[in-house]
Amino acid sequence: MAKITLDNLAHSYLANPAGEDDYALKELNHDWVDGEAYALLGASGCGKSTLLNIISGLVHPSQGRILFDGRDVTATSTAERNIAQVFQFPVVYDTMSVRDNLAFPLRNRGADPNYVAERVNQIATMIGMEAELDHKARGLTADAKQKISLGRGMVREDVNALLFDEPLTVIDPHMKWELRTQLKSLHHEFGHTMIYVTHDQTEALTFADKVVVMHDGRVVQIGTPQELFERPAHTFVGYFIGSPGMNLMDAKIDGAAARIAGTTVPLGAGYGAPAGRTQIGVRPEFVRLSGSDGLPGRVLRVEDVGRHKIVRLDSEAGRIDAIVPEDAEIASGETGIQFDPAGVNVYADDWRVAPQQERV
């Protein structure tokens, strides 16, 4: 396992990038702790796979360095980095049996045959393919082949890092949950450094110790699922994490209050007078319908999703979503909208502003 350091790292696919907009991956400086599980989360095209391929050695960065435990590996091959990588679509040896596919990385390194047999059986059990061990990979379904790819990536216990590039895309939904559970179990048992690329927030939040949220080639926040939910560092994180995402409203911030479309909203903490475009962000869980008090709004529709109801509202501050208990009675028409101060975040030019005092 290895601590991974991204030192002044950036990458452009252009030969002569003229400015920041020409970079698929903008400058990064981060340390990723040895033995933790990370998820790279973001929309398509945000730079997730580019960063993963730089870490693995498949792409050489335009600038900066990659260090494993302080050793510069920027110019070394994937094999020298001792990396296992699983790609979005299955990569298997069709003429080999499932058993031989799983055993290949160990046999290639001269491992003891008894250890190989034991480890292959462990991994086959983990991916649910004990009955297919002696079948040829040719002719298996795409999700079965991807399970072989996952198993081959996990079969070695001595790797510096396990890298997964959207590996569950072709897996059926039930098996996705099982394999995510098995990956977490593997991580807890062996303590591998794992990096998992996905655009699916459920996969990221249920798999990782820390989620690395990327937007437009940048890392905008690294945090636990709780930190991403409660204190999104960037408006994109608030929008991308959660279903529905965070409500964002233009506001004038004055100390411990915000002025939104003519209504004063208490913030629960002091923020001074931040410069730039200022907004407040409130997750739907912290929105309250209050009858006549608060920001004037109108109920557009109510969606019953079983566990709770999602209320879609219109207001002079824009569309607002609220989550209310399943048994709540929601009247149509006009209503007041209030926000729990404990759930309000303040943003200036899309970045979260830290309060100047503790919340009250």
From TrEMBL:
Domain of life assignment: Bacteria
Membership in a protein family: Belongs to the ABC transporter superfamily.
Keyword tags: ATP-binding, Cell membrane, Membrane, Nucleotide-binding, Transport
Annotated PANTHER family: ABC TRANSPORTER ATP-BINDING PROTEIN, MALTODEXTRIN IMPORT ATP-BINDING PROTEIN MSMX
Official protein name in the record: Sn-glycerol 3-phosphate transport system ATP-binding protein
Residues that span the membrane, as ranges: none
Natural source organism: Profundibacterium mesophilum KAUST100406-0324
Domain ABC transporter: 4-241
GO cellular component annotations of the record: ATP-binding cassette (ABC) transporter complex, substrate-binding subunit-containing
GO MF assignments: ABC-type ferric iron transporter activity; ATP binding; ATP hydrolysis activity
Pfam families: ABC_tran, TOBE_2
Keyword Nucleotide-binding tagged: yes
